[in-house]
Amino acid sequence: MDRRLPPLNALRVFEAAGRRQSFTLAARELNLTHGAVSRQIRALEDWFGRPLFVRSHRRVTLTESGVAYLAEIGAALDRIAAATARQIEQRSRRVLHVNALATFTLRWLIPRLSAFQLAHPSIEIRLTTSNAPIRDLNDPYDVAIRGGPEQIPGHVAHPFLSETRIPVCSPGLLERLPLTTLHDLRRHTLLHAATLPDVWSQWLVAARVPDLTTAGSVTFEHFYLTLQAALDGIGVAMGPTALTEDDVKAGRLVFPFEGPALPARSYFAYVPDARADDPAARSFCNWLRRGDWAARNGADR
């Protein structure tokens, strides 16, 4: 496209002079001399072949053509400035690649991630999920969230969240089938996750009812599906306290029994040694360690 454009420096000077209705104020704004502003305006008028300002002894005013042109040029320069600012912002943004466990991502990280974004607008999180061991990850990552503690060669480990496991169900289910004692579980369906096949049997042993027979069981491929089934009142799940905390606070889930609570692995952020001193990775790990405090306040102190 063959664009016929006047001298771009002259346009900038014209916009400032027209907006200010003063060559003197335009010169001050642009850090130019009065004579330089006058010459740029004259060059633009010569290019158009008609005046854009009416000059009097102590002031200048826009001609009718100048008023119409200023309206277009001012808007165009505003768009150029906004586009330039976006480019500068994108250049200054740091992309942080985070790989986390799927259920943890859905139940804990995503509900809190906006707090990190508000506190760190220059860091863009690229989030992927996987339950594979860190050594088997193929995609690049700056931070990987897994259970621990583990000694993973070439990584720095940052613990940030601990939990236990205890039965959890919806209030609606309790209204239909109350759970007053452990033996009331006989009337209920137990919800299992294929990734944690033994957790219910371990809990029943800890509760001293290892031979308890229940009304049925349903097994799901992923643990987050098990928790969703509990929310929907399908049965009783073995809920990790950290990942069900928000639903319990909101009244969507309840703990029908006070215990026992099974110990569970803590969550760790594993950072490759090459990223150990990276400011973005360090900010993210610091935020994780503050946990729910960051979710409520959204600040990095």
Automatic annotation (TrEMBL):
Presence of keyword Membrane: no
Keywords linked to the UniProt accession: DNA-binding, Transcription, Transcription regulation
GO MF annotation, one: sequence-specific DNA binding
This protein's record includes keyword Transport: no
InterPro entries, sorted: LysR-type_TF_proteobact-type, LysR_HTH_N, LysR_subst-bd, WH-like_DNA-bd_sf, WH_DNA-bd_sf
Tree of life domain: Bacteria
Listed Pfam families: HTH_1, LysR_substrate
Residue ranges annotated for the HTH lysR-type domain, each copy included: 6-63
Protein name as it appears in the record: Transcriptional regulator GcvA
Name of the gene this protein is made from: gcvA
